[in-house]
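In this supplementary section we document a worked example of the pipeline. Step one takes a protein sequence of length 102 as its only input; no multiple sequence alignment statistics are reported here. Step two produces a three-dimensional model, which step three serialises into C-alpha coordinates for compact storage. The input and output of this example are shown verbatim.
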Amino acid sequence: MEDFEFHTPGSLDEAVAALQGAEEGKLLAGGMSLLPVMKLDLAAPTDVVDLAGVPGLREITADESSVTIGALCTHAEVAGSDAVQTSIPALSHLVGEIGDPQ
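The serialised model returned by step three reads:
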Protein backbone atom coordinates (compact mmCIF):
# COMPACT_ATOMS: atom_id res chain seq x y z
CA MET A 1 0.00 0.00 0.00
CA GLU A 2 1.30 3.43 -0.95
CA ASP A 3 1.60 6.27 1.56
CA PHE A 4 -1.33 8.69 1.64
CA GLU A 5 -2.59 11.67 3.61
CA PHE A 6 -5.52 10.82 5.91
CA HIS A 7 -8.07 13.60 6.56
CA THR A 8 -10.72 13.62 9.31
CA PRO A 9 -12.87 16.65 8.52
CA GLY A 10 -15.32 18.00 11.07
CA SER A 11 -17.72 19.47 8.53
CA LEU A 12 -18.94 18.92 5.01
CA ASP A 13 -17.10 22.06 3.87
CA GLU A 14 -13.83 20.70 5.29
CA ALA A 15 -14.41 17.37 3.53
CA VAL A 16 -15.02 19.09 0.20
CA ALA A 17 -11.91 21.26 0.65
CA ALA A 18 -9.73 18.23 1.46
CA LEU A 19 -11.02 16.36 -1.56
CA GLN A 20 -10.61 19.34 -3.88
CA GLY A 21 -7.06 19.91 -2.62
CA ALA A 22 -6.03 16.33 -3.29
CA GLU A 23 -4.21 15.18 -6.39
CA GLU A 24 -6.01 11.81 -6.29
CA GLY A 25 -8.49 11.90 -3.41
CA LYS A 26 -10.93 9.21 -2.30
CA LEU A 27 -13.78 9.31 0.20
CA LEU A 28 -13.87 6.81 3.05
CA ALA A 29 -17.37 6.05 4.26
CA GLY A 30 -16.84 2.70 5.92
CA GLY A 31 -13.82 1.16 4.26
CA MET A 32 -15.46 -2.05 3.10
CA SER A 33 -14.48 -1.42 -0.53
CA LEU A 34 -11.65 1.11 -0.55
CA LEU A 35 -9.20 -0.30 2.00
CA PRO A 36 -9.00 -3.87 0.62
CA VAL A 37 -8.41 -2.47 -2.88
CA MET A 38 -5.65 -0.23 -1.52
CA LYS A 39 -4.03 -3.18 0.29
CA LEU A 40 -3.89 -5.04 -3.02
CA ASP A 41 -2.28 -1.96 -4.64
CA LEU A 42 -5.21 -1.69 -7.06
CA ALA A 43 -5.84 1.88 -5.89
CA ALA A 44 -3.29 4.38 -4.64
CA PRO A 45 -4.99 7.63 -3.64
CA THR A 46 -2.81 10.50 -2.49
CA ASP A 47 -5.46 11.47 0.05
CA VAL A 48 -8.24 9.64 1.89
CA VAL A 49 -11.03 11.76 3.37
CA ASP A 50 -12.88 9.98 6.21
CA LEU A 51 -16.51 11.08 6.38
CA ALA A 52 -17.26 9.41 9.74
CA GLY A 53 -16.92 12.65 11.73
CA VAL A 54 -18.99 14.84 9.41
CA PRO A 55 -22.20 15.86 11.21
CA GLY A 56 -25.50 15.17 9.51
CA LEU A 57 -24.39 12.37 7.22
CA ARG A 58 -25.95 9.73 9.47
CA GLU A 59 -29.30 11.48 9.98
CA ILE A 60 -32.73 10.57 8.63
CA THR A 61 -35.33 13.34 8.60
CA ALA A 62 -38.79 13.72 7.13
CA ASP A 63 -41.33 16.45 6.52
CA GLU A 64 -44.69 16.52 4.71
CA SER A 65 -43.18 16.13 1.24
CA SER A 66 -39.81 14.39 1.57
CA VAL A 67 -37.54 12.03 3.44
CA THR A 68 -33.83 12.80 3.60
CA ILE A 69 -31.42 9.93 4.22
CA GLY A 70 -27.84 10.85 5.09
CA ALA A 71 -25.05 9.36 2.99
CA LEU A 72 -23.59 7.34 5.88
CA CYS A 73 -26.84 5.71 7.01
CA THR A 74 -26.70 1.94 7.02
CA HIS A 75 -29.40 -0.27 5.56
CA ALA A 76 -30.36 -1.29 9.11
CA GLU A 77 -30.71 2.35 10.17
CA VAL A 78 -32.94 3.11 7.19
CA ALA A 79 -35.03 -0.04 7.76
CA GLY A 80 -35.49 0.82 11.45
CA SER A 81 -36.24 4.50 10.96
CA ASP A 82 -39.72 5.58 12.07
CA ALA A 83 -39.63 8.32 9.41
CA VAL A 84 -38.96 5.81 6.63
CA GLN A 85 -41.40 3.21 7.98
CA THR A 86 -44.16 5.82 8.10
CA SER A 87 -43.43 7.69 4.86
CA ILE A 88 -42.07 4.95 2.59
CA PRO A 89 -42.86 1.53 4.06
CA ALA A 90 -41.77 -0.28 0.88
CA LEU A 91 -38.28 1.24 1.18
CA SER A 92 -38.10 0.25 4.84
CA HIS A 93 -38.94 -3.34 3.92
CA LEU A 94 -36.56 -3.39 0.92
CA VAL A 95 -33.47 -2.16 2.77
CA GLY A 96 -34.22 -4.57 5.60
CA GLU A 97 -33.68 -7.41 3.12
CA ILE A 98 -30.41 -6.14 1.58
CA GLY A 99 -27.14 -7.76 2.58
CA ASP A 100 -26.31 -9.56 5.78
CA PRO A 101 -27.22 -7.87 9.08
CA GLN A 102 -24.15 -7.37 11.24
